[in-house]
Write a structure and sequence with these properties.
The protein has about 50 residues and is of the alpha+beta class. The protein has one helix and four strands, in the order ββαββ. The protein starts with 9 loop residues before the first strand and ends in a 5-residue tail after the last strand. It holds the Pfam family DUF4283. InterPro entries: DUF4283.
Length: about 50
């Protein structure tokens, strides 16, 4: 999550089966993560969707 350089807090919960739930305290962080991808982490594409 360091590559996102958030302004607020990000809380991450492991939902199992390679799914994670992220909660943002800052709307700007939320929009950036949702719309500015694709994101690459350890040579894997991270797909972000609203849930």
């Amino acid at each position: 999550m360091n590559q996102w350089k958030p302004y607020g807090e990000i809380i991450m919960a492991d939902m199992g089966n390679d799914f994670y739930l992220l909660q943002f305290s800052n709307g700007q962080d939320y929009n950036r993560v949702l719309y500015d991808g694709p994101w690459i982490i350890a040579d894997h594409v991270l797909t972000v969707h609203r849930w």
